[in-house]
Amino acid sequence: xRSLTGRILLAAIPSVLGVVAAIMLSLTYPDVLVRVSTxxxxxxxxxxxxxxxxxxxxxVVARRSAQRRHALMVSGAEHARVEHQDxxxxxxxxxxxxLTAIRAALAxxxxxGSPHLEIADSQAQRLGSLVSDLRKLSGLQSRPLECEPxxxxxxxxxxxxxxxxxxxxxxSSREFTVDFPTVPWRIPPVEGDSDLLYLAVFNLLAxxxxxxxxxDCVEVRASEGHGRVWLEVADTGIGIxxxxxxxxxxxxxxxxxxxxISGSGLGLPLVKVVVERHGGRVSVRxxxxxxxxxxxxxxxxxxxxxxx
Length: 308
Prior knowledge:
The chain is of the alpha+beta class. The protein has 2 domains: 1-142; 145-299, Heat Shock Protein 90 (2-Layer Sandwich), CATH 3.30.565. Helix content is 54%, strand content 14%. The chain has helices at 4-11, 13-28, 40-109, 115-140, 152-169, 194-210, 267-277; strands at 148-150, 175-179, 190-192, 217-225, 228-235, 281-287, 291-299. A 5-stranded mixed sheet has the order 2-4-5-7-6, with helices on one face. A two-stranded antiparallel sheet has the order 1-3.
């Protein structure tokens, strides 16, 4: 979009042309008058000035109109964000009380020996996990950030160990490969909330483990450049169908080939909220049946000087 100064200069072209035409007519026909009792040179000059004035007014009006539209869009987006946050908080509140009653009743009755009650207890636990994730998502959007230098390598190490521990408790395992450059220097720390960044990395690793099986690989790799650090978690799992890729960051969205796998559909939205609150961005690449790679990029407060 052209700047206001550029538009005014562009609008002044008719006036310049009018002045040039006035000079040429004045030199060529110095004694010729038109019926309106003015010289052709003065007429051309007046028309040029009039056109310029109209053009300048049009530019100013268009500029102010664009500013009003932008202000309305910003105001509307903020209103939508607040409404969405309130909805998540209300949903958490409405689900919490009946869920607590259901789980209390199941605990009092006992579920052993009754397949139906065991299914009900399993689904109650799943709903409890969903409510917990909704509460996290609602809180993340308004929680103040407690910023400090954060070593992403340490975060990845802790999250990998936590995911491996959870897998071993279920009698399963995954092969995690971590590639963090250490020479000629380490990845610089990022400025952020260590708890929230841990939550984002843990969700990425847990997601990769969930949609892979025994024998599949999960790679965690990192690098830096142009004042940013990027961290990518890639796997050889089931992948995401192309039609589902645009929706992976939406709350409760589930890929069509993952409907039989337990989950709340809030893992990646949580990651997105955390990363964007730190001034970063997220992206995903995936091929169904081959695997998925999710990348987060975060700004670095004191980046390593670029090699020349």
